[in-house]
Design goal:
Shape: elongated
Largest sheet: 7 strands, mixed
Distance between the termini: 112 Å
Strand order of the largest sheet: 1-8-7-2-5-3-4
CATH class of the largest domain: Alpha Beta
Number of helices: 9
CATH superfamily of the largest domain: Glycerol-3-phosphate (1)-acyltransferase
Radius of gyration: 30 Å
CATH architecture of the largest domain: 3-Layer(aba) Sandwich
Oligomer: single chain
CATH topology of the largest domain: Glycerol-3-phosphate (1)-acyltransferase
Structural class: alpha/beta
Amino acid sequence: MFYRLMKMIVAPLLRIFFRPWIEGEENIPAEGGAIIASNHLSFSDSFFFPALIKRRVTFIAKAEYFNTPGVKGKLTAAFFKGVGQLPVDRSGVRGAGEAAIRSAIAVLDRGELFGVYPEGTRSPDGKLYRGKVGGLARVALATGAPVIPVAMIDTEKVQPPGQVIPNFGIRPGIRIGRPLDFSRYHGMENDRFILRSVTDEVMYEIMRLSGQEYVDIYATAAKRQIADDKKRADAERKAVQKAEQAAAKAEKAEAEKAQKALEQEQKAAEQEQKDNGPA
């Protein structure tokens, strides 16, 4: 019910305020299970894609969206639960990943669409990062469901990471590719080399659709690197500021010392002039 309500309210609002475009919607089958594999640029991806396609899609969402305390956390949890999203624990807790895979298989067995972000997290800088081996490939090989690559376009400009209020005046888009068939690997979902091959093929199609620069590292590692670079840059900036302040202080002290010396010389000259004046 909540999902239908979202489609009735959110979708028209998105179309009015952002005029999003969509290409290749015919590549999504009218019925039957299929896996939607999308790049992930912005929190708003979770609104635009489900709102604009005709069929219902169930995405995996990080567990933090369901258990964050406070009013905002409760509202976020209610939204994700209402639209049927699946929580996945990314903290490495044993069994959490397997539970998510079982839930995804159940969605596909019901003949519905299952959505996943292979990068595992939002891109920190708009680039496309290496897909994580696991859920996507294992579910595809276990079920035989086709994988439909999707590229979200410019959603990071609508709502950059960390920004709550979206930017208006930007027209985002969705580009949907042709289904990928991995039935040739059926039953090989425990072969890590096959899983990597399947994941890389999907990521290549997403890159081709999105036009993003591809970086062959995980987005989580890129986020750590960006955070470390920021800390290092901040430390260097503070060190430069401290050095500049020290230099300015030393220069001021030298100037004050020179001024005092000049004043003393002037006083001495004046005193000498008085002493040598007319009797």
